[in-house]
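In this section we turn from sequence analysis to structure. A common task in structural bioinformatics is to predict how a protein folds when a small molecule is present, because the ligand can shape the pocket around it. The inputs are simple: the amino acid sequence and a SMILES string for the ligand, here adenosine-5'-diphosphate. Study the lines below before reading on.
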Amino acid sequence: MFMRFIYKRLSAMAGPRPVVLSGPSGAGKSTLLKKLMKEYNNVFGFSVSHTTRNPRPGEENGKDYHYVTRDVMKAGIDKGEFIENAEFSGNMYGTSKAAVQDVQAKNLICILDIDMQGVKNIKKTDLNPIYISIQPPSMEVLEKRLRDRKTESEESLQKRLNAAKNEIEFSKKPGIFDVVIVNDNLEDAYDQLKNAVLEEINVVNKMKVSS
Ligand SMILES: Nc1nc2c(ncn2[C@@H]2O[C@H](COP(=O)(O)OP(=O)(O)O)[C@@H](O)[C@H]2O)c(=O)[nH]1
Ligand SMILES: Nc1ncnc2c1ncn2[C@@H]1O[C@H](COP(=O)(O)OP(=O)(O)O)[C@@H](O)[C@H]1O
């Protein structure tokens, strides 16, 4: 317990702890993290992942993702440029070392939006993030939100719903997530998210005052 306290304080001196958001596709991770980044300007920084999936209308290369081919992604992985990578719904996704370093160099709270394979692999690193699971109120609500989002083909939607069952089960395992948030009412879920990261927001604000 004492060692954990010391470790946490040492990490805080080095900078704020990153935050991992995970949970089924359509649970509301992007919605919540965008809201957080908007309210706390210059406190959070998004870890921009690489993916082989196509950009959706409105998404920007370098901001939402780095959109790359499978060959480029594989070459980067072979060169050891990635902290973790996974195959999700027929596409590759991965967090590059640079994506996290870019945010941490600015002493901002690095937010990672990753699937459960990513969570398992990040647990093997020394990143020491706060693990937050975002869950839908039910499979029915999740399906409706994904359909209403109108970003997926029927095939992609079914793959995501299938993966969601595993993501939901994974969130129930003890000792994986620090906080599990059910995103039913958006404002309630957002309040819970803010509460979960409050300590790190204070770390960033204190660093700003003392620098
Ligand atoms: N392991 C891993 N998963 C990622 C990464 N980037 C995104 N994901 C996950 O990939 C899944 C699909 O993401 P995306 O295609 O943007 O769809 P959406 O979650 O429905 O908006 C989600 O569960 C994301 O959390 C990454 O770098 N690594
Ligand atoms: N609490 C909520 N109530 C109703 N709709 C929501 C809520 N949270 C998110 N949504 C909507 O559900 C869809 C999926 O949310 P999104 O943030 O894209 O999920 P994720 O990033 O986890 O895939 C979006 O169209 C979003 O506007």
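The helical segments are 2-14, 29-39, 70-78, 97-104, 116-122, 139-149, 154-172, 186-210. As an exercise, try to locate the residues that line the adenosine-5'-diphosphate site and compare them with your own expectations.
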